[in-house]
From TrEMBL:
Belongs to the eukaryotic RPC34/RPC39 RNA polymerase subunit family. This is DNA-directed RNA polymerase III subunit RPC6. SUPFAM superfamilies: Winged helix' DNA-binding domain. Residues 253-282 have a biased composition (Basic residues). Residues 212-252 have a biased composition (Basic and acidic residues). It is found in: Nucleus.
C-alpha cells in the first residue's frame, strides 16, 4: 500500500517528473517517514514501474516519471545535450555538415554528360519541375541511418531542426514540391543499422486515447503493480523463511559445538582424576 501511494504521487507529476525530496514533502511524516518514502521510490524503480531522468536546468537531481512516459525535450534536453546536460555543439555541427552535403548532392544534377545548359551555368540546379528529386526530411534521415553517422535515436523532427538551422544560416532553402507535400513513412534502423519503415505504434499518449482506452490502460497498470507487489511480498516471505531456517541451523550448530566442547571437557576432567588417583595409589605403596 505504501508503494502504491508513492506511485500515485509520481503519476500525478506526469511526464515532467518529480524529485525524491518533493515526493517526500507531499507525504505526511505521521503517515510515512521520509526514509520509507525514499525506499519506496527505489523499490518502484527496481520493479520497473518508474524511471528517472535529469533536467537540463538541474543535471544533478534526478526526476522520476512512470516507466511508460517520456520526458519533454524542453526539460530533458533531447539528443542535442550530452550526458552532463551540456549542449553538444560538436554533435550538432557534425549532423549539420552531413545534412548539408547530402542536400547539396541532391540539389545539383549529375553533370557527367554536360549539355548546352550545363556549359552555360557552372552549377546548375534542378528546375522546379524536378523537385521530386530533391530530398525530404525522411530521405535525409534514411541516409543518416544507412550510413551509421550516429548511434543516437534520431527522428524526422530532429532532422527538420537541423535543416531549419541550416536554413537560418542561409545554406539551404525549403521549397514545396509541385503537387503538394506528401507524408512518407518514417524510418528507423534495424539491428544491422539498415533503415526500415517504422511500425505503427499503439497510441499511448493521454491526448490520443479515448476515455475507455485510458481506463483500460490504467486498470492494466494497477493490476500490473498489484501483481508485482504480491510477487515482491512472496519473495520477501521466502527470504525471511530462509533467513529463519539459516538462523535455526546456526543455533543448532552452535549447541552441537557446545555439547562437544562440554563432552571434551568432561573427558579431560575424568582422565585428570584417573591420573591423580593413580599417583595417590603409588604414593601409598610401602617402600622396600
Amino acid at each position: 500500500m505504501e508503494q502504491q501511494y508513492v506511485l500515485s504521487i509520481i503519476e500525478k507529476a506526469g511526464n515532467k517528473g518529480i524529485s525524491k525530496s518533493m515526493t517526500s514533502l507531499q507525504v505526511n511524516p505521521d503517515v510515512m517517514p521520509r526514509s520509507q518514502v525514499l525506499k519506496c521510490v527505489d523499490s518502484l524503480e527496481k520493479l520497473g514501474l518508474i524511471k528517472n531522468f535529469k533536467s537540463v536546468n538541474g543535471p544533478i537531481t534526478p526526476l522520476y516519471i512512470l516507466a511508460n512516459l517520456n520526458p519533454p525535450e524542453d526539460i530533458a534536453g533531447g539528443i542535442w545535450f550530452d550526458e552532463s546536460k551540456e549542449y553538444d555543439s560538436t554533435f550538432v555541427d557534425t549532423l549539420k555538415d552531413v545534412v548539408l552535403n547530402f542536400v547539396t548532392s541532391k540539389t545539383f544534377p549529375n553533370q557527367k554528360g554536360k549539355d548546352s545548359i550545363s556549359k552555360l551555368v557552372s552549377n546548375p540546379i534542378h528546375p522546379i519541375a524536378k523537385t521530386a528529386s530533391l530530398p525530404t526530411p525522411q530521405h535525409v534521415l534514411k541516409f543518416i541511418l544507412a550510413n551509421k553517422v550516429t548511434n543516437a535515436s534520431l527522428s524526422v523532427k530532429n532532422v527538420m531542426e537541423i535543416a531549419r538551422a541550416l536554413e537560418l544560416d542561409g545554406l539551404i532553402e525549403a521549397i514545396k514540391p509541385v503537387g503538394g507535400v506528401t507524408v512518407e513513412e518514417r524510418y528507423e534502423s534495424d539491428s544491422d543499422g539498415e533503415p526500415v519503415p517504422k511500425r505503427r505504434r499503439a497510441k499511448d499518449s493521454d491526448d490520443e486515447l479515448d476515455p475507455e482506452e485510458r481506463a483500460r490502460r490504467d486498470r492494466k497498470n494497477r493490476e500490473k503493480l498489484k501483481a508485482k507487489l504480491k510477487e515482491k511480498k512472496r519473495e520477501e516471505k521466502r527470504r525471511e523463511k530462509e533467513k529463519k531456517a539459516r538462523a535455526k541451523e546456526k543455533e543448532r550448530e552452535k549447541r552441537r559445538k557446545e555439547k562437544e566442547k562440554e563432552k571434551r571437557r568432561k573427558e579431560k576432567d575424568r582422565k585428570r582424576k584417573e591420573r591423580d588417583q593413580k599417583k595417590k595409589g603409588k604414593s601409598k605403596e610401602p617402600r622396600s
